[in-house]
């Protein structure tokens, strides 16, 4: 995998342009947060040749925990509309990351589960997360790791609480 700085430079253009947006003062905190976000997204992109979206990933992760499931239950638990759930599952099936078969009681309902390829995808994503954690942890003290963990959780909670939920397709 490419070095993080190379991923950052390729995916997070830091050059200044002539647009009005470039005239906005960016604090060191905003810059650091932006850089971290860019590196994380770049690393995710590098380990996601299937082009799995966040909603598709959430669906795969959820299926791994609770499979097999029917589409209506998946959508309900993840907060997706019926049409969004259908689009997500259709795309995952086209990528061969899930398998679907008619239900025993109701042949119209499709019982959905991870395919072997879907499980391998999730394991690769998990390995990438472990790798990132190992890289960062190997260069921090235990105290820094504890502080970083606390601050990441706090920032995530604050951002999650302020994130508007959209159920649009």
Q: Helix amount, in percent?
A: 55-70%
Shape designation: elongated
Proportion of residues in extended strands: 5-15%
CATH class of the domain at 54-115: Mainly Alpha
In whole angstroms, the N-to-C terminal distance is 34 Å
- Report the mean per-residue pLDDT as an integer: 86
Radius of gyration: 20 Å
Helix/strand structural class: mainly alpha
Number of strands: 2
Q: Count of DSSP helices?
A: 7
* Corresponding CATH architecture of the domain at 54-115: Orthogonal Bundle
Brief write-up:
The chain has 169 residues and is mostly helical. The chain has helices spanning 4-11, 28-46, 54-66, 71-78, 82-94, 116-137, 142-161; strands at 98-102, 110-114. Among the domains are: 1-12 and 27-46, no CATH class; 54-115, Arc Repressor Mutant, subunit A, CATH 1.10.10.
